[in-house]
Amino acid sequence: MTRKLISFRICVGLVFAFITVFAQAETNDDRSEALFQEGYTLYQQQYSPNAFEKFKQAAQLGHVEAAYYAGNILRRNHTYITEEAEQFYRQAAEGGDVYAMLRLARKGNYCGTLRNCDYDREEWLERALDSVLPKAEAGDLDAMKDAYSVYRVSGDKGEAWGWIQRAAEGGHAFSQYWLAILLEEQDMGFYWTEASRRADILKWLKTSAEQGFPKAMLKLALEYKEDGRFDEANEWVDLLGQTDYFEALFNYGLILLQGPEGMFQYPEARPVEGLAVLLALHRETGDQSVKYSIDRHLNDLDSDTVTKARARSEELLVDTPILHYLPKFGI
To answer: Do 136 and 130 meet the contact criterion of CB atoms below 8 Å apart?
Structure first.
């Protein structure tokens, strides 16, 4: 066999080996992403044990965000970072997940059994900041929101406040909602009067709600209701039923059932639609508070209404993952 032929066969073998490895990596990436999406749906539906298994499998295939959520479920179940949770967080952090870095950077009883939890705290804070700051300064709105989280964990409230403002002003829907929460619940920012603070709270909630962020939509409807602005509140109520957010759908169903007699003074009771939403929501989530509300209203409804509502409920929320949580947020 000539030297040229041997060299050719070696080259061909290397090419095939490279193609095989590349194809395997691509298959693993596809599989890990599919597992992550399955896990995330279960996580949003509050089926944490089932979600954890999906995230764990995806993490074993190298999925960074899945490793973060696997660690987060373990931490939440134990209320502190276990050694297994630490391993998942470190995998995610090494892969560039900012919120995993921030979990490892936190002080206090969050550490739990993690013996050296403070050992590399400053290093993880530095890495988190190095990861987000260049992108935030370049105008990336998600990175601005992440910069808020990093500075908040580091204890620099001034810088944190500045970044969440910039993200909100840039049009980031979650940041607009969160800015309103900070103004209301933590008295961030300076205002001469409470009326002007209140005006800004409503402004940012509305800006976020107009982008379709469901938590802002529900919060805005509730705030308008508290102010006695029922017409404006009910404009947003009508949109709550079009979301996939648990609290929005739950409130929507109740408001339609209660009609003018309820706290929102909704113009007319729509018992078929209201009960149908609650029945569908219970079917999809199994939530006991929804079941309690259904049972409480059944005695006040005639059999024809209940029959129509049950039939209507079969068409609602089919294959719709019901969301319970905020976007990933490291505070």
So the answer is: no
